[in-house]
Amino acid sequence: MATLVFSAIGSLLGGPLGGSIGALAGRQIDALLFKPAAREGPRLTELTLSASSYGLTVPRQHGRVRTGGQVIWATDLVEARNRQGNGKGRPATISYTYSASFAVAVSSRPIEGIGRIWADGKLLRGAAGDLKIGGTMRVHTGHGDQPADPLLAAAEGGACPAYRGLAYVVFEDLQLAEYGNRIPALSFEIFADSAPLSLQAMLDPVVPDCDAEVALDGLDGLTIEGSPADLLTLLDPVYPLDCDACDAQLTIRPERSQGAPLVLPEPAIASASDDFGGKAGFARNRALGGEAPLSVLRHYDPDRDYQPGVQRANGPPALGQPRVLELPATIAAPAARRLVDAAARRRAWARHTLAWRVTQLDPAIRPGTVVALPGESGQWRVRAWEWRAEGVELKLERIAPTAPDPSGATDPGRVGSDLDLLSPPTTLVAFELPWDGNPATPLPQLYAAVSAGSGWTGASLLVDQGDGAWQPLGTSGRGKAVIGTALDTLASGSPLLFDRASNVTVTLFDPAAELGNATLRQLAQGANKALLGNELIQFAEATPLGTGQWRLSGLLRGRGGTEHALGAHAAGEPFVLLDSPLTLLDPALTGPPEQALIGALGLGDSAPATSPVWLAGIGWRPLSPVHGRTITPSGGGLELHWTRRARGGWRWEDGVDLPLNEQREAYVVEFGPGSGPAMSRWDCDSPQLVLASGEWSALVTATPAGVFTVRQVGDRALSLPLVITPV
Q1: Between residues 48 and 627, which one has the greater pLDDT?
Q2: How far apart are CA 95 and CA 92, in angstroms?
Q3: Higher confidence at residue 232 or residue 288?
Q4: By the 8 A CB rule, do 605 and 673 touch?
């Protein structure tokens, strides 16, 4: 931009020659204003991920850092075949899942432990040590007594090393469905040291006989891959150091901050007119151009899950592009702000230099010494000295005066992190539903209602068919069913009337789940259908009471032929909203529902949550007859009559009897005391029984308080009894 402007002005004032001169001046200004930002230090990788390449070094980790790793051992993918079928009439579904076992080296020096782990940028392991997917993990911290990992030892035999001195993590049977059935790119939160970081601890393993007691205040972690010289070069811009190798031992200290500076004598005047300083004895230099002072620090911010953060120094921006220091270290935002502000002030004040001549060499004055000068304000640091014919020339650099902590916001910003939630325990209710009357619907209809609190990611479903062995049934998926328990006992009622008087309070296992209201029209269409113990109900009103509790009222009772459970309720029985996500179970795998025990095992479960099958057998069992009555003919004897019902015939829309849905119509009628064995039995093929006078008289004489029970005979089971008391 400046090139075009100055070229046009020069051409206007001085012709072609003036245009060339203007363009040259403009290019210099453009180069100053728009040149790329100067960078110091190794470039920050956005976040190093795990790799597996021959010859790569395993870095040394200090403090707390987030880093990738080097895969040092792995197995082939292991395939698991899962078959899920829906019984007769529906095809089976076969799915495949894959897992892998592998080891990742994370540090070439011992560490204290591993925190969170990310896989493909998503949280794989939480701060509490819980894996978010299936599998197990072991951490080997790299100390001298470290044993060989049992998995590696079993696979490699006697050739397996213990990797002492190397910290590594072993994943066993890690489920890979979340990552496209491949080993994901991993990054680890490493805790290597609990004590504050110091330069001495970083140099001890690689530089023997070195005195480097330098506290690295504000530095929470650092990954070191290069040489000690690389380390010192990396830290010097923000932690200025003095290195003294004059004695037998290498000594590294922070820049000296003496209690009182040494006062230099008056400068010595040179006799030669061409020597620096002339009659003044010193030469002043204030560099106004050249390299811009450091003003931007890029670092890894622990408050942003170790994503790169940027802090800028106080003060007006320098001319041109800012100078950036890239420090691959873990530093909190306030500490990074203090470091870059102090570094910028040091660079800015160090532009003011002096060459000062003395005629006597003082052994106490050496590079790094803080001095004061006659007639000059402030303090100065000796950067170098040189023996000349006219005396000793000291090269001095102005020291920045003490300043308060930088003001202004140091907000690290936000990062889109996954919620680190512990996997809650799984809750389960298994049940069978009545047949819906559709010939294509397979029987029995077995369901598992599975749920948990926040952070739940699904569960594996299992079945115990009565032999104590768990067999797989597939997975529940991540959809949560709305399930809970009854806090009180629902009173008995009538299956023929809308129950406005009774109510029941339930507590949902997931406090975030909700129940809704329904109108009478919606109830007629099947809304708000729920399982409560062994009874199917519908509710019109759900009143929230807080903390996951709801009061249900406006009830339709005994739905689906469950009127036998109207008076059998108890506190603590399960509640399941049938409109919520349910998992259909394969009856071919579960075996007889009456004997099956269903289990669900999630990531947060040490043992499976179990449930028997509620309403077991209701799909095949005929409905019990209704409207039982007796008639006494004029000639004596007794007539019994009842009304049959059909499985699946829930809606009687046209007043015509529904198909029986059994191969034949048959009933078993028994007469007895009711609480004991039956005294007599009759098989009927129509909904009535006629007893002659003598037969009825004999029954009454033998059992005066006897009652009749009527059961419909189905293809596979008998119905529950209808009890008829003769008058």
Answers
A1: 627
A2: 10
A3: 232
A4: no
